[in-house]
Amino acid sequence: MLPERTERLRFREMTLTDLDHLADLLGDPGVMSFYPAPKSRSESREWIERMQERYTSDGHGLWIIETHDGEFIGDCGITWQSYNGIAVREVGYHVRADRQGRGYATEAASACVDLFRREFAPGLLTAIIHPRNDASRRVAEHLGMTRIADDRAHPWIVRTVMGLTVEAQAS
Ligand SMILES: CC(C)(COP(=O)(O)OP(=O)(O)OC[C@H]1O[C@@H](n2cnc3c(N)ncnc32)[C@H](O)[C@@H]1OP(=O)(O)O)[C@@H](O)C(=O)NCCC(=O)NCCS
């Protein structure tokens, strides 16, 4: 299962050969400013391995996003998450700092909405967002998501749950 390529981007599953790029991305304090801490190289390796387990168990996860000529941009995809104890599929994204602000996250996440429509609709797709992460909230809004709840299950922040009920494509 993979989203279709977009005007500028293509998706593929991540492998350990992506470790250099992903360790740079997930080790960047700016990119990780709404996470507890940037990831070390070994944590990035574990994260790739966890994503590979998700591909096998769930059929989806975060995928590498790259330009059509193979330039690494970041990751984007669909994972199982939960808010207030409710399991939901979430669209997630990380874009390398020097490529942000060009519409890449919105473009990639839109392809994930299309994939969700093909594979899982009708159903709820969410984005669970740190309350100060305005860029992520803007991406969710571009997808047509609206605030549906506050997640109070997290130990130290109340996260905003954005959601979109994705209808099946009319045939
Ligand atoms: C969230 C993120 C993926 C967006 O990537 P991107 O490719 O720059 O996103 P886009 O260019 O598609 O859109 C970004 C939107 O956020 C806005 N934005 C960017 N930085 C912003 C900021 N600091 N404050 C407010 N809005 C901001 C942009 O103006 C744009 O909105 P607009 O189209 O209405 O102008 C990127 O900022 C990132 O990787 N952040 C760190 C990782 C992260 O927090 N991921 C989400 C976890 S829930």
Describe this structure in words.
The protein is of the alpha+beta class and 171 residues long. The protein has a single domain (9-166), classed as Aminopeptidase (3-Layer(aba) Sandwich), CATH 3.40.630.30. 30% of the residues lie in helices and 31% in strands. It has four helices and seven strands. The chain has a seven-stranded mixed β-sheet, sandwiched between helices. A hairpin with a 4-residue loop joins β2 (62-67) and β3 (72-83). α1 (19-26) crosses α2 (41-58). The longest helix has 18 residues, at 41-58. The mean pLDDT is 97. Bound molecules: coenzyme A. Residues 31, 34, 92-95, 100-106, 129, 133-136, 138-139 line the site of coenzyme A (COA). Coenzyme A binds at residues 31, 34, 92-95, 100-106, 129, 133-136, 138-139. One of its GO terms (molecular function) is acyltransferase activity, transferring groups other than amino-acyl groups. InterPro entries: Acyl_CoA_acyltransferase (IPR016181), GNAT_dom (IPR000182), N-acetyltransferase (IPR051531).
List the topology elements.
Layout: E1 9-12, H1 19-26, H2 41-58, E2 62-67, E3 72-83, E4 86-95, H3 104-120, E5 123-129, H4 134-142, E6 146-151, E7 159-166
Parallel strand pairs: 4-5
Antiparallel strand pairs: 1-2, 2-3, 3-4, 5-7, 6-7
Helix pairs in contact: 1-2
Bound molecules: coenzyme A.
| Class from helix and strand fractions | alpha+beta
Residues in helices, as a percent range: 25-40%
Largest sheet: spatial strand order: 1-2-3-4-5-7-6
The proportion of strand residues reads: 25-35%
CATH topology: Aminopeptidase
Protein name: GNAT family N-acetyltransferase
GO molecular function: acyltransferase activity, transferring groups other than amino-acyl groups
Organism: Microbacterium tenebrionis
Pfam family, one: Acetyltransf_3
